[in-house]
Amino acid sequence: MPVKLNGATSGSITIDAPAVAGTNTLTLPAVTDTLVGLAATQTLTGKTLTSPTITGAVVSSMNSSLLTSGTAVASTSGTSIDFTSIPSWVKRITVMFSGVSLSGTSNLQIQIGSGSVTTSGYSSYAQIFNSATLTNTGTVTSGYIIWTSTAADSRTGAYSLVLLTGNTWVCTGNSSQSSTQSSQTSGSLALGGVLDRIRITTVNGTDIVAVSTGGTERMRVDASGNVGIGTTSLTGTSLKVSKNITGATTAYGILSDGAVQTDVTTQVNYYATNANAASGSITNLYHYIAAQGTIGATVSTQFGYRADPLTTAVTNYGFQAGNAAAVTAGKTAYGFHTNMNVATGGGTTYGFYANGDATNYFNGILQFNSGYGSVATAYGCRAWVNFNGTGTVAIRGSGNVTSITDNGTGDYTVNFTTAIVDANYSAVYTVSLSSGAGFGETTNSGLATTTARFRSNNTGGTLVDATIACASFFR
């Protein structure tokens, strides 16, 4: 069949197709426009198609521009979830649910809006089928209703909103609520303007949206923002975890084991509290409390708090109480406090128990009762020694003593490992002589911070080497 091209003002050109079938190319003599007819796939760039007819498969590269997938939202954030800033050109919206349940017996509903959410004027109908039997139906005017049976029902399904005409949107969809139940919804609403938002909420507006699996609610956030896992009772509790602990021989109620990244260089807090109180009066404020409920199992060992060996840092603390020296008058700060009393039921109790053989370090004043009738400051023995003062001096046992200097018959100097804070300490000497009774005495200038000099005498005041010499120093 010939093709006839008419000129812009006059004249025409007629092009006849070749008699022999094959690949044919028609090229227009414009600088930038080339019309090519080929069997191969071609790309059309910078051209506008007015009301085209597309047959065959849709071009795959068009999918991302025609269909937009929103970001999934966890349904654990109160009584409603909003999707806003929906483009004006949108003609179809699909709302999908996966394992969504409620805290009460209300029904879910989808609301739409233009500028604000529309809460009335809907024509909406829903019904539930149980094993192909219609069991419940309902209508509402506050949104597109998604009917449910019980609060524990977990909904999974999809609902389509389609622009019918003008700003009138129709909604159809269905979801499963158990292995035998399904819910179907249909409805319409004429908006006052272009749709720009969608809200997922409940009919009564107070039931919260929760997460369920296997028909059982697992997690919720109530209208006050309280979070519950494995529980529906959240009054007065910001976060409550009541899920049964199971699944392994060693299991955890809560475990934080995230790896610290290189951008964190100053301080890492795996667990921290920072108490604040606006006003009023509080009797007790606990940052951490370990208590026990009913324990039917036999528990070999129970720890209120345990610090496993911490060794990788330069300085490692199993427990540390910060400096509270700035505490004001009328207040008291305790680094460690225990109310443990002596056991009366036949067991054993310890207010403080240090079972290891590591050094126990106390820098401040030490006070205790230890059966003396009242709590008072304890003054420790700063050094002690037991030695043989005859012949070559030999230490039998000692504490904070490095050596004994033999100054002559019955004359000794005790050398301290760590100096005593000053020379105003008390020295106690006892001696045992082979010839009978004796006594020890400090020399006139015998007390120093690093040494103490004393003499061993018999009852007549003569210096005699002691077979057993003992010295103790208190400050």
Number of helices: 1
Question: Percent of residues in beta strands?
Answer: 35-45%
Radius of gyration: 45 Å
Uncertain runs with pLDDT below 50, 5 residues or more? 34-38, 57-64
Structural class: mainly beta
In the sheet with the most strands, the strands line up as 7-6-11-10-9-4-13-14-15-16
Shape label: elongated
Mean pLDDT: 84
Distance between the termini: 123 Å
The helix content is under 10%
The H/E string reads: EEHEEEEEEEEEEEEEEEEEEEEEEEE
Largest sheet: 10 strands, mixed
Q: What is the number of strand segments?
A: 26
Folded structure, characterized:
The structure is a single chain. This protein is about 0% helix and about 35% strand.
Which helices and strands occur, and which strands form pairs?
Layout: E1 3-6, E2 12-15, H1 63-66, E3 80-83, E4 92-102, E5 108-113, E6 123-130, E7 133-140, E8 144-146, E9 155-165, E10 168-176, E11 181-190, E12 197-202, E13 209-213, E14 216-221, E15 227-229, E16 239-241, E17 366-368, E18 376-378, E19 381-388, E20 394-399, E21 401-408, E22 411-416, E23 426-432, E24 438-447, E25 451-458, E26 468-474
Task: Describe the structure in brief.
With 475 residues, the chain is mainly β.
Any key phrases for this structure?
475 residues, mainly beta, 10-stranded mixed β-sheet, 4-stranded antiparallel β-sheet, 1 helix
